[in-house]
Amino acid sequence: MTNAPHLRVAAPPPRPLLIWDGECRFCRLWIERWREMTHGDIDYATSQEIAERFPGIPSEQFQKSVVFIDTDGEVFVAAEAVYRSLQCRSSKRWMSWSYDRIPGFAAISEIAYRFIARHRRLSSAVTRLLWGNDVRPPTYFTARRWFLRALGFIYLIAFVSLWVQIDGLIGANGISPVSEYLPAAHEQLGAHAFSILPTLCWFNASDVFLHFLCGGGVVLSLLLIFGIAPAVSLLGLFVFYLSLTIAGQTFLSFQWDILLLETGFLAIFFAPWQLWPRRDREPPVSRVALFLLKLLLFKLMLMSGVVKLTSGDDCWWNLTALDYHYWSQPLPTVFAWWGDQHAEWFKKFSVAFCLVVEIVVPFFIWKPRRPRILAAGLIIFLQIVIAVTGNYCFFNLLTIALCLLLIDDVAWPRWVGTARCAVRGAPNGRALPFSTWAPAALIILMLPLNAWLIFTAFRPEARWPRAIAFAYRHIEPFRIVNGYGLFRVMTKERREIVIEGSNDGIDWAPYEFKWKPGDVMRAPGWCAPHQPRVDWQMWFAALGIPQQNPWFMRLLEKLLEGSPPVTKLLERNPFPDKPPRYLRAMFYDYRFTTAEEHRQSGAWWKRRELREYVPTISLGNR
Questions:
Q1: Rounded distance, CA 132 to CA 411, Å?
Q2: Which residues lie closer than 8 Å to 593 by C-beta, 6 or more apart?
Q3: Strands 570-572, 67-69: parallel, antiparallel or unpaired by DSSP?
Q4: I want to staple 319 with a disulfide (CB 3.0 to 4.6 A). Which of 26, 351, 502, 577 is the partner?
Q5: Would you call the peptide bond into 14 cis, given omega within 30 degrees of 0 as the criterion?
Q6: What distance lies between CA 71 and its chain's CA centroid?
Q7: pTM for the whole thing?
Q8: Rounded to the nearest 5 degrees, what angle is found at the Cα of 541, between the Cα atoms of 539 and 528?
């Protein structure tokens, strides 16, 4: 279908020409977008400048719509003119194809065009509301620089935080020595162990090598922060952190560990493949890698919200989750105590706000600039609130770093990024072939897996298709495609394990952990972005029985032996000179005190003894 199939001009232009009304502010905005999309393949001119050169075209036509004149003299107007002008972009050819071949597409397009043309002032207002004053295709050079710096900083935190604990966790004298774990895994799994547990520790599982991995991660993180060989640095960071994650066993099984690995893996294809990228020679931003990183943020937020509503836990539906969360979460801060004192209506409002940000706002990620930036702001605000009231390590920082990718170059303040005109010159840098085809292959592999993982948030009981299950089974060990969803079911009671030692079996002294609740007079601390991994595991151990947590029994064994790397993980060792003869673990119910109880006693917690978690043991009866 065409509006004027027989209209031609006698003197066609040497290049395709799009003519528009220079007095229309709405047209001016969108012409700038099309001009950039067509990369100089189309000439643009206002009807006021050039209309008289084409007397065969009625003058009123220029006032009603844009006019496109091809090099053969054929004339197209309105929606068809727009579609024909964009044919030079391979990604936009579907528009003119659909206009010609899909029944109804042309009619709907022309109706929509006429409506916009008749309501230009309204259309201009809507455009400015959604895009602002610049509707050109967004670029993300500033976002890429700051995202990579932020990711380097987060990697640095992760490696340093683990480095100071590595000996006590998985060292030769630690709780779960990797030098024992890997041989046992190989004995059980055979040759499959290498693909199921991909780690460099197969080559060397000594304490020295573990320190090398941590130290090497620190060096590579600094290189990434300073922008030196970013893609190569990211590749090394991924390999080192994956190796430590596998070697760390249960101590590195947290969602932020796999989120860091998935983000770091995608960032390899997002980063410039240059030794030292310069702003005047930066290669183009990979649209595919950017899409996958945005999809990761979308998946993270949407799944985190949806699983709450599909878990069967009524406290998310009736908005009472914060009646429990502040005091039952693994490592609350002192601000969680204050949050717990809030009125019931405010807690319910906070739960509703959280669900809206996690379920509704992620769809704004795919919208024009202003809704997209609004989504970034709301997600960042939620992450800050979560970080203030709970110690979730580098999880909140990593989510905020992903939000930076929603801010295109126009939206950054000039003192943060690069001026728009300078940024527009940056794509002159040439992309390596690898950075073109690798992300394309990546999206073919990862998009179906991500789509299915998101679907499982809505339908947890859904049976996996055989092909997707097969692919995921082989990819899962590398942690590059993951499902997410913290606090699917709210913990409605807080059980705490208190380890006590004694030399005579009569007088018992408690071990105090650095961050988890113990002494009721000690205020909840703030340790994020550092993660005390034993403290975190103690929260999970309290949800089950000792037989479900074999690492806990090994912890008791190491305390009976007085292992220095393990006792260093604790805040207070009541037996600094010689380990005790006996140990036991007591089970307590903990709750925050009320404001009145805190004023009277000064205590932040109140607790009630329940029973023994582990009865009295000694080295002789283990």
A1: 9
A2: 337, 601, 603, 604, 605, 606
A3: unpaired
A4: 351
A5: no
A6: 48
A7: 0.92
A8: 30
